[in-house]
TrEMBL record:
Belongs to the cytochrome ubiquinol oxidase subunit 1 family. Keywords: Cell inner membrane, Cell membrane, Electron transport, Heme, Iron, Membrane, Metal-binding, Transmembrane, Transmembrane helix, Transport. InterPro entries: Cyt-d_ubiquinol_oxidase_su_1. This is Cytochrome d terminal oxidase subunit 1. GO terms for biological process: aerobic electron transport chain. The lineage of its organism: Bacteria, Pseudomonadati, Pseudomonadota, Alphaproteobacteria, Hyphomicrobiales.
Amino acid sequence: MELGVVELSRLQFAMTAMYHFLFVPLTLGLSVIIAIMETVYVMTGRPIWRQMTKFWGTLFGINFVLGVATGITMEFQFGMNWSYYSHYVGDIFGAPLAVEGLMAFFLEATFVGLFFFGWDKLSKVGHLTVTWMVALGSNLSALWILIANGWMQNPVGSVFNPDTMRMEMMSFYDVLFNPVAQAKFVHTVSAGYVTASVFVLGVSAWYLLKDRHVELARRSISVAAAFGLASALSVVVLGDESGYTASHTQRMKLAAIEAMWKTEPAPASFTLVGFPDQEARETHYAIHIPWAMGLLATRSLDQTIPGIEELVEEAKKRIESGIVAYDALMKIRTEREAARASGTRPTADVSSHTDSPELRKAFEDNSDNLGFALLLKRYVDDPTQATPEQIEKAANDTIPGVAPLFWTFRIMVGFGFLFIAFMAYFFWKSSFGGERYPRWALIFAVCLIPAPWIAAEMGWFVAEYGRQPWTVDGVLPTALSASQLSVQELFITLGGFVTFYSILFIIEMALMIKFIRKGPYQDVEETEAWEAQHERRLGAMDDSGLAAPSPAE
């Protein structure tokens, strides 16, 4: 297979996935924020909170619809661009996606309609239940998708079946409670909460700068700052958990993120900044923080983190073991085909029960490393004929691009700490500063709106690019996963996807800007009447703090 086909297939999926993820974080976070706002409305009865729920709910609806449009095409790509991947691991990967469609997406889509059209048809508590179900459905969708993605990072609960020549699920429980999937879920969802909080806070800051919808803006900032601060703190804590799981399940990715070429004595230092040189296998002008990496990745003082060079040597041994498994597997297949062709055994009897015990044992003893032998397919059709030089090349292929991972990870982490400081400042001002915000802070809040999307895209880049050269880590190389397509076909579809998704992104931005400029147009008269009555009540308070009776009362 041409490497160009694989690269273009990867580029096309990366483009569609990153476009789609422009919509996902805001959906996750806004669904919870509007549920919080409506909860306050039900508890207090103040119309301003219903107005806030409807206004931010409108922006949520725009984002949700366009997010669905960009997400549907992604699942079709598994069959179109990654057909061998779908055949090889579809038994495991397809199950969480099917549950997501049947449970989470239908739940979310059903209750979204009730959210928008049920205000006058449902009781307050009934509509609040609907809103929380929308939030639950959004987050359940993320859970099942990240369970599928987590299995690609750490393929547990499955085994290769030489009878079907496919990976098959052995334990749905292990797939569901995969530690990588769980860490990715809470980290990704928290990042979505931060994204929505920054968005709500930034738009509200713009209203305060324009002196429009001040009451809605002040209350929205209070909710977004409190919710965003808790979320930003959890992103950092849960990101640390992701790093800890990577130290056990994806050691090469962790070493590449750190640009750790050689194994250091425990506890390893953390490279704050530097310039990784993959050719020379060293990091120029590196600034280290002693002990930090060892403490974060292993939570101990005596456990070592293997460096890239040590992991490459380990990959060589696994490739050699995988060659043994591949050779045994091919001989087992040859024996079965010969038995079928001779007619000495019925087809149904030609199974694992008739295999040579020696071959079967050789395969089972080395089957965990079969995927490493498949790395040689890039250089030789038959891995058993690979030369030492080809094994060396395949082992070096297990090193992802270090410099891109090194810098994108640090940009993501830098944004994470910026969000903590940003949210803490606005939380302090909204809680203890009388909701008085300096003009510079409001301008900064508006300018910061794109930042969480940049951080989220960086996070996905680290997660997916850092897994290379694997589609399923240690099981299936990316170079073998793609469909048999031509370069011309991929250029055409890539151009079509980019054009279509760009149009949807422009529509999203146009609609968002239109409705933000329009402001909270629903329930305006009722909200203003309530606020005016509330002001009159406050004005009628006597010196003792008791409300004096008014003529209206």
